[in-house]
Amino acid sequence: MFFVAGAKSGGGSGGGGERRSIYQKFREVDLLDKKKTVTALKPGEDRAILLGLGMILSSVMMYFVLGITILRSYADSVWTEEGVCVVLNSTVTTDMNCSYNCGSDCWRVSKYPCLQVFVSVNNTGRISRLSHNEETQDISSECFYVPRCQKDSAAMHVIVMNISERLKVNQQVPCFYDPSEQQETVLLTRLYDHSVVFHSLLWPSCMLIGGALIIVMVKLTQYLSRLCEEIGKIKR
């Protein structure tokens, strides 16, 4: 009986040791898998954070470029109010000189007709000269439109006369004027209006938000991973 009980107890202790050794092996494999997962995730998380930071930096640079170009021109423009202009007179007054590039260090003079357009703003009786946009106003304060200078002056003459005929047909045109009346000239179009500013700021804003979301998601994933680890340690 003693030998039989001894054999049974020996077999039981051996079985318990085997079960413990199998459990330890499974636990070692589990820990190794977790280490491998953490090791694999860390470079991916670093790359994601770098991507998010790169997107944020690029959006900041785009904001800076837009701020010194489009936004500055938009803010400096005094033609802020939109109204309706009635065309009173559209005539070609004289020929204006312009220069075009004919090669390396070669510039030649050509001529284009100066079209002057006078309008009444909002039927108020205020008569103003109409200009195409801010760029035209800076180039020539007298002419409505300044075509791209080229050798063929007849082609430029045709372009200007077509514009004159269209203005005679369309007596009422939308225009932009200075509400403070410091600028007597009114504009047919603005280089940078609300829609241009909105679309120019849309893409850097999306890039900034996307980069911030990537960083927030990575940090949230790391926090949840540490939280799960701590919960697992408490259960053990």
UniProtKB/TrEMBL annotation:
<dbReference type="GO" id="GO:0015459">
    <property type="term" value="F:potassium channel regulator activity"/>
</dbReference>
<feature type="transmembrane region" description="Helical">
    <location>
        <begin position="196"/>
        <end position="218"/>
    </location>
</feature>
<keyword id="KW-0407">Ion channel</keyword>
<dbReference type="Pfam" id="PF03185">
    <property type="entry name" value="CaKB"/>
</dbReference>
<keyword id="KW-0406">Ion transport</keyword>
<dbReference type="GO" id="GO:0008076">
    <property type="term" value="C:voltage-gated potassium channel complex"/>
</dbReference>
<dbReference type="InterPro" id="IPR015382">
    <property type="entry name" value="KCNMB2_ball_chain_dom"/>
</dbReference>
<dbReference type="GO" id="GO:0005513">
    <property type="term" value="P:detection of calcium ion"/>
</dbReference>
<keyword id="KW-0812">Transmembrane</keyword>
<keyword id="KW-1133">Transmembrane helix</keyword>
<dbReference type="InterPro" id="IPR037096">
    <property type="entry name" value="KCNMB2_ball/chain_dom_sf"/>
</dbReference>
<keyword id="KW-0813">Transport</keyword>
<dbReference type="GO" id="GO:0015269">
    <property type="term" value="F:calcium-activated potassium channel activity"/>
</dbReference>
<dbReference type="Pfam" id="PF09303">
    <property type="entry name" value="KcnmB2_inactiv"/>
</dbReference>
<keyword id="KW-0472">Membrane</keyword>
<keyword id="KW-0325">Glycoprotein</keyword>
<dbReference type="InterPro" id="IPR003930">
    <property type="entry name" value="K_chnl_Ca-activ_BK_bsu"/>
</dbReference>
<feature type="domain" description="KCNMB2 ball/chain">
    <location>
        <begin position="16"/>
        <end position="33"/>
    </location>
</feature>
<protein>
    <submittedName>
        <fullName>Calcium-activated potassium channel subunit beta-2-like</fullName>
    </submittedName>
</protein>
<feature type="transmembrane region" description="Helical">
    <location>
        <begin position="48"/>
        <end position="71"/>
    </location>
</feature>
